[in-house]
Each structure stands twice: as structure tokens, then as C-alpha cells.
Design goal:
With 107 residues, this protein is low in regular secondary structure. Helix content is 13%, strand content 11%. The longest helix is centred in the last third of the chain and has 10 residues.
Length: 107
């Protein structure tokens, strides 16, 4: 099992989660983070660190967010690893909790 970053991360992109990851499985895109399922060791350290509550254990990903399981794996293939926390975008709090953000995902 792995952990999965879901839709609420889009345009929030808080990076609190990356510093607690012992295996550096997070990858950074322009406005989203993704977890590499081949690297994740299911330690669960990242989930409580996400201010946007966008990280779920694979078995707990909400039904309407299931596509993010495959999307995380796909995006990790082309995005660099991120290991150090960065400031959140200035408007992150405004985007937190907004629905239908998938169309805003930048690759």
C-alpha cells in the first residue's frame, strides 16, 4: 500500500509533508505534489502533516478521488524529487477546500 496526494493539493501545494518522509518519495510539479508509489514505504508520517488534508492511504482515498492513485504514479515519472519544505503559494489558503480543481493541475 502507498499514500496518495489528492485533488485538494492542487494550487495549495503545502510542502510540510516532504520533510517528514524518510524515503524522499515526494515529487514536485508546478502546483501539486505527488507520491511515488514505488518509493513510499507506508510509514504514514506525511498524512498528519498536510494542512490541506490532501493525503490519504491508498485504501482510504475517497471514491471520487480514485483517479489520483494512478495520477500520482504518472506524474512522478516526470517530476523532480522534493525533500525540503518550501513556502506555500501566497494564495494557498484561498484554494484550500475548493472543489473541482483537477482542471487546474499543471503538468
Amino acid at each position: 500500500m502507498t499514500f496518495v496526494v489528492t485533488e485538494n493539493c492542487i494550487k495549495c501545494k503545502y510542502t510540510d509533508c516532504v520533510e517528514v518522509c524518510p524515503v524522499d518519495c515526494f515529487h514536485e510539479g508546478p502546483n501539486f505534489l505527488a507520491i511515488d508509489p514505488d518509493e513510499c514505504i507506508d510509514c504514514a508520517r506525511c498524512e498528519p502533516e498536510c494542512p490541506a488534508e490532501a493525503i490519504f492511504a491508498e485504501d482510504d482515498v475517497p471514491k471520487e478521488q480514485q483517479l489520483f492513485i494512478a495520477l500520482n504514479a504518472e506524474l512522478c515519472a516526470g517530476w523532480p524529487v522534493i525533500t525540503v519544505q518550501k513556502p506555500a503559494p501566497p494564495d494557498a489558503a484561498e484554494w484550500d477546500g475548493k472543489p473541482d480543481k483537477l482542471k487546474l493541475l499543471e503538468r
